[in-house]
Amino acid sequence: xxxxxxxxxxxxTAIALVEASGGLKSSRFKVLENFxxxxxxxxxxxxxxxxxxxxxxxxxxLPLLLExxxxxxxxxxxxxxxxxxxxxxLEPALWTGIEFAKKLAQDLxxxxxxxxxxxxxxxxxxxxxxxxSKSQAPNPKKTPNIxxxxxxxxxSGGHTILLYMTSLTKWKKLGETRDDAAGEAFDKIARxxxxxxxxxxxxxxxxxxxxxxxxxxxxxxxxxxxxxxSFSGLKTSVLYYLRDNPKAKKPDVAASVQQAIIDVLxxxxxRAAREFGAKSVLLCGGVAANRALRENLQxxxxxxxxxxxxxxxxxxxxxxxxxxxxxxxxxxxxxxxxITAQSNLNL
Length: 347
Ligand code: KG4
Ligand code: ZN
Known about the structure:
Layout: E1 2-7, E2 12-21, E3 28-38, H1 40-43, H2 51-73, E4 81-87, H3 91-108, E5 112-116, H4 117-123, E6 129-130, E7 141-142, E8 150-155, E9 160-165, E10 171-176, H5 182-192, H6 199-207, H7 232-244, H8 250-275, E11 280-284, H9 291-303, E12 307-309, H10 321-332
Parallel strand pairs: 1-4, 4-5, 8-11, 11-12
Antiparallel strand pairs: 1-2, 2-3, 6-7, 8-9, 9-10
The chain binds 5'-O-[(R)-(carboxyoxy)(hydroxy)phosphoryl]adenosine and zinc ion.
5'-O-[(R)-(carboxyoxy)(hydroxy)phosphoryl]adenosine binds next to α5 and α6.
């Protein structure tokens, strides 16, 4: 089944074409095209995403990306279904994708499947990943062999969620953030440091020149025996630290903040993995692009002989390939989302 997917929940306009096959126990995906048009430069002067500007950019970019995809594939008629993100996200942004997808589905006479953006992030772990082999093939990729039970850490700009999964479609939410999400903490703290939006990649960049042990920032809720998170207190301590230490070295602050966030995420994830006897640990969402977080989880899972999975970099931050995967799995399990903007949808 070939699925053309559309994602416009926040500040990335994305269209992808994905070939999906197999049942719930053997789903396989091949990303044929994956286009993302980033709006970072448009929102950057405002220090964050402006919903109506996002809408305007989506309206402009969607036809351009579709045209590019049509030219590359010359066979839009051969697709079997259209998928679109219905939530969570910014309402005006979601609506542009939904209206565009509705019209396209009508024009092509194809079914339209609604998808949950957070399921998209979760299921991005089932996209093929690049293998580090010396193979001669230009882009060797492999479908991850994820075994259950699994523990999944979903860390994006809006969400920080820890899940216990017993199958592709059955999970229990162990905990989530009580205030700021991990990505939001990166973004807000970057702002305090005078770094541009989005803050996560900027903090990562300057952290490379600092010491993660330079400043002992609090690790919120680290030792509480639950799977909840809270990051707004960390932001406040950084604010006070900068006020009291105006000559602080920014790379040290960035590296120490990054380490504080990583310590909490990794420790809680690993505790859940041990408690629930997980065979696999999954990481996904925009913050999964953070190299230090990936390396930390890789090392700690190795120590416990657990399998660690994280999607390739281009599928961590928002993209439409993950939306195609979510729509396919949703259709296999007979789950239908209403085709209307649902800004508060969750996992
Ligand atoms: O998943 P995503 O693209 O959008 C949402 O669904 O929210 O996540 C965006 C978030 C932003 O907060 C951004 O700062 C963060 O992911 N992010 C990172 C990195 N790359 C993106 N955080 C830390 N390190 C990174 N390298
Ligand atoms: Zn996202």
